[in-house]
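FAQ

Q: What does a record look like?
A: Structure on top, sequence underneath. For example:
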């Protein structure tokens, strides 16, 4: 019977079989030795080339790529023939799990010339089978040596390579057989738990999927896809034929040429598999609960492929752990009666595979104690190294088993399949040589390198009488489900057609000032779903009164909705939900902000509730502690993040202000200290001193009843003209420009796969300056868009960064704007990123932007500005800014007009006037030590 995995259970990992799970082999030049040929076979064998010979095994090749290995041994009157295809479950695609194994079954359904294969096997007395594994599928037969059986089996293997039926009818019948095999495996706690461990270990690689496949794939596989898989993989250039035991070599080569030679070399190309899981970065656990069986514990670690030199010492280490009675796991668990059996084993695969340690418990034994002892035994290898006695004992056992396997032609003919699947049949010998040469230092080194806590996955099987499982998710016929669906007619109304030009926006805007001093701008326009967005900004204090209050202000704003106006936190949330209102509170520097999104009919009531909360907050201690913990956790995360570290470094570089000033850039430690010092009493005092509607702005855009909104604003904020006591009026904190000397900073952030660049300098310009529009365009062309100079060079041409850009934060009040250049990249590419960035800047300054670039940039920038005016949130923010500084949408039109008139000369002059690479301060954050060559 075909089977899916001869090594799935660790009990099957016998030493003679493990001898084939091997590591890399040296290349050998082709040999020119003469081919064996009798008088009648010379012509037939002429197309067969001898390639090499190793320890009595001779390799030949046919022109179509078929590899042939002859292993003659007359000491036993039997012959074993094995055909290995380098095709297993590793080569399956989405929806194809189990396909390699299913195909193995269908091969035995016959060909046109041999429709009843099993009858031929029985008639000839062949002991035959097929197996599928991750990296290969093989078909083999052993029989009493005779030419008739040998000739027939060789011919059938060749016939099955290209002429197997692979019919729909056979698939339908055999699918149920395979499904039953699947079901039998599901009855095995060992197999199920092993599979779950592998699935947890391998998130991306196909080793995480069972060779037998998913039940849904087995039941639904398409015959055309299965046939395509067969035609692709069952070809001579993807196969190795092994003949071992008693046979006439010349005759075998003649038959091989006769049966396989006519098969053409395929023109298709077999893709190289390249998916690998990243290094595991933390312990994983999985628990399986089913009826029956005894508890099991598995621990598994990612290790190397069979062809890696480290695999040999890992095999020896597994034997040191699992040997009985002297093995460490046997002594730690079985002898102490913590488990009924224990062991360790490694699977030698073509790509990085697993190393397992396991324990099977008897009824009544404690799972937690067994698990703890198993892991402690592995961890103790660091303090209790493997001894010379342990190593030599298991080495002797392993080599003795290997010798026994090598002298048995029935074993070697099949065992060598694993070496073939791992990359080369010579690994069968090379691995033995590595086992012979492995030292204590090698064994100890691999234990320390791979058997780490963060590299392991633990699986536990717990038998239970009543599994508590969710129902199996059903499929849904979506077409049938929605056949007559028409939706909610009330929601089908179309929104108003509105062209958001500056003139139309200005014409729609209704502005007024409340008696308290709060300025308001309402822009009513139809919106889908009758949505409206609004924002309230209350301005606070001055440079002296706010000294030392940065953290207090931030927490005071964020805690407004955590209790107040006679309502608990939950009641506030429930009330906003009932109003279909998404409301956020926050504060930064001199502004306490409230963001509102709701629907037309609920905006007035939402404003009423917001006003009550702003005027009467509670600042509960438990909410303060919750927010403080969240803020402290954020700071701790930032301490390890390249982007946060370099931003902090550049913000502090050249900062002239003392600690406590709003303009001061605090360190992480200072931010922690400031947060720890905030109390509910300080929050309430801050609110009494600073928060009112005496200075601020409110803007709303969307579907609204203007009269109702004005009335709600008047009721909530019209009479709130100053803080209740100790009035401290708002006065904007000035931001004069300070020249900062250029500096380079390199900040190491270990274990971060992504690195960050941030470069900054201040510019003596505001958005009132005549150079504002030309410089806006210059930055847009330099790094402000996809297709910019920086984007095309760093990302497009060199592929160094996913996100590279430049930007200017234009100051609205003083000639003090900030230029920033940023990029993310792999740490090893730091030098290339810097070279590319500097060359882009130098080229732009030297050659300038072309007329074509400016024309394209003009069209793109104007399109983006039109797009932004169509965004409700953007228009709300613009209205807030306009009210603060006394502007309106006419300015937007003036900027658009200036962009339309721009010339390359103006743009290049602005670039050269303000952007000076020599003044840039660069900060780099990343794991550069690990990335260094």
């Amino acid at each position: 019977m075909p089977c899916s995995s001869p090594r799935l259970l660790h009990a099957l990992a016998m030493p003679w079989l493990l001898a084939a799970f091997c590591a890399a082999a040296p290349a050998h030049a082709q040999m020119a030795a003469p081919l064996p040929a009798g008088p009648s076979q010379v012509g037939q064998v002429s197309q067969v080339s001898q390639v090499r010979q190793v320890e009595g095994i001779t390799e030949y090749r046919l022109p179509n790529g078929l590899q042939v290995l002859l292993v003659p041994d007359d000491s036993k009157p039997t012959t074993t023939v094995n055909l290995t295809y380098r095709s297993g479950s590793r080569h399956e695609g989405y929806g194809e799990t189990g396909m390699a194994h299913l195909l193995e079954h269908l091969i035995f359904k016959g060909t046109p010339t041999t429709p009843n294969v099993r009858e031929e096997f029985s008639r000839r007395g062949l002991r035959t089978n097929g197996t599928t594994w991750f990296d290969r599928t093989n078909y083999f037969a052993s029989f009493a040596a005779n030419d008739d059986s040998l000739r027939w089996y060789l011919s059938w293997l060749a016939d099955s390579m290209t002429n197997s039926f692979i019919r729909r009818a056979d698939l339908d019948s055999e699918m149920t057989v395979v499904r039953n095999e699947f079901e039998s495996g599901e009855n095995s706690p060992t197999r199920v738990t092993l599979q779950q461990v592998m699935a947890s270990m391998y998130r991306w690689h196909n080793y995480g999927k069972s060779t037998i496949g998913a039940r849904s794939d087995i039941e639904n596989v398409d015959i055309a896809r299965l046939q395509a898989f067969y035609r692709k993989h069952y070809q001579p250039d993807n196969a190795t034929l092994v003949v071992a035991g008693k046979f006439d070599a010349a005759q075998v080569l003649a038959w091989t040429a006769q049966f396989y030679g006519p098969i053409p070399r395929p023109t298709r190309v077999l893709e190289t598999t390249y998916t690998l899981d990243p290094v595991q970065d933390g312990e994983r656990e999985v628990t399986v609960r089913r009826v029956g069986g005894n508890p099991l514990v598995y621990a598994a670690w990612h290790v190397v492929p069979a062809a890696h030199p480290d695999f040999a010492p890992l095999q020896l280490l597994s034997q040191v752990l699992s040997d009985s009675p002297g093995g460490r796991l046997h002594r730690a668990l079985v002898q102490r009666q913590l488990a009924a059996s224990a062991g360790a084993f490694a699977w030698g695969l073509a790509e990085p595979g697993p190393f397992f340690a396991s324990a099977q418990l008897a009824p009544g034994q404690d799972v937690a104690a067994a698990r703890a002892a198993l892991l402690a035994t592995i961890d103790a290898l660091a303090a209790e190294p493997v001894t010379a006695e342990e190593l030599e004992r298991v080495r002797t056992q392993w080599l003795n088993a290997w010798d026994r396997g090598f002298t048995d032609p029935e074993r070697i003919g099949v065992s060598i399949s694993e070496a073939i699947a791992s990359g080369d049949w010579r690994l069968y010998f090379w691995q033995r040589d590595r086992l012979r040469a492995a030292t204590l230092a090698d064994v100890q080194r691999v234990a320390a390198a791979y058997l780490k806590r963060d590299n392991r996955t633990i699986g536990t099987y717990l038998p239970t009488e009543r599994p508590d499982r969710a129902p199996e998710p059903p499929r849904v016929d979506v077409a049938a489900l929605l056949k007559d669906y028409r939706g909610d007619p009330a929601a089908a109304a179309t929104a108003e057609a509105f062209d958001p030009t500056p003139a139309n926006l200005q014409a729609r805007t209704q502005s007024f000032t409340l008696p308290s001093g709060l300025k308001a701008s309402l822009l009513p326009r139809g919106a889908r779903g009758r949505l409206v967005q609004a924002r309230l900004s209350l301005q606070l204090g001055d440079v002296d009164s706010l000294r030392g209050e940065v953290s207090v202000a931030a927490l005071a704003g964020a805690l407004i909705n955590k209790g107040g106006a006679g309502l608990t936190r939950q009641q506030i949330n429930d009330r906003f939900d009932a109003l279909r209102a998404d409301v956020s509170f926050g504060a930064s520097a001199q502004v306490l902000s409230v963001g509102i999104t709701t629907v037309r009919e609920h905006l007035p009531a939402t404003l009423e509730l917001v006003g009550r909360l702003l005027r009467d907050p509670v600042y509960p201690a438990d909410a303060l502690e919750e927010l403080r913990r969240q803020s402290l956790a954020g700071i701790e995360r930032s301490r390890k993040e390249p982007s946060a570290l370099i931003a902090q470094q550049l913000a502090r570089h050249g900062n002239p202000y003392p600690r406590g000033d709003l303009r001061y850039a605090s360190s992480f430690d200072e931010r922690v200290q400031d947060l720890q010092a905030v109390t509910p009493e300080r929050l309430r005092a801050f609110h009494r001193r600073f928060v009112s509607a005496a200075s601020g702005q409110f803007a709303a855009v969307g579907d609204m009843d203007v009269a109702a909104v004005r009335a709600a604003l008047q009721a909530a904020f019209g009479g709130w003209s100053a803080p209740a006591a100790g009035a401290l009026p708002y006065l904007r904190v000035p931001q004069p420009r300070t020249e900062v000397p250029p500096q380079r900073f390199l900040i190491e952030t270990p274990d971060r796969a992504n690195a960050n660049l941030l470069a900054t300098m201040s510019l003596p310009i505001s958005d009132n300056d005549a150079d504002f529009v030309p410089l806006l365009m210059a930055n847009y062309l330099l790094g402000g868009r996809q297709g910019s100079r920086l984007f095309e060079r760093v990302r497009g041409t060199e592929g160094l960064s996913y996100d590279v850009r430049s930007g200017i934060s234009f100051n609205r009040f003083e000639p003090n704007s900030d230029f920033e250049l940023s990029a993310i990249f792999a740490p090893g590419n730091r030098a290339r990123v810097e070279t590319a960035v500097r060359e882009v800047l130098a080229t732009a300054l030297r050659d300038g932007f072309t007329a074509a670039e400016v024309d394209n940039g003009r069209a793109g920038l104007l399109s983006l500005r039109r797009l932004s005016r169509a965004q409700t949130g953007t228009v709300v923010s613009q209205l807030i800014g306009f009210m603060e500084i006394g502007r309106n949408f006419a300015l937007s039109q003036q900027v658009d007009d200036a962009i339309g008139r721009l010339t390359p000369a103006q743009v290049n002059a602005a670039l050269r006037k303000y952007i000076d690479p020599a003044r840039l301060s660069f900060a780099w954050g990343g794991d550069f030590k690990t990335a260094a060559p």
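Q: Is there anything notable about this one?
A: Residues 744-931 form a domain with the Cytochrome Bc1 Complex; Chain A, domain 1 fold (CATH 3.30.830.10).
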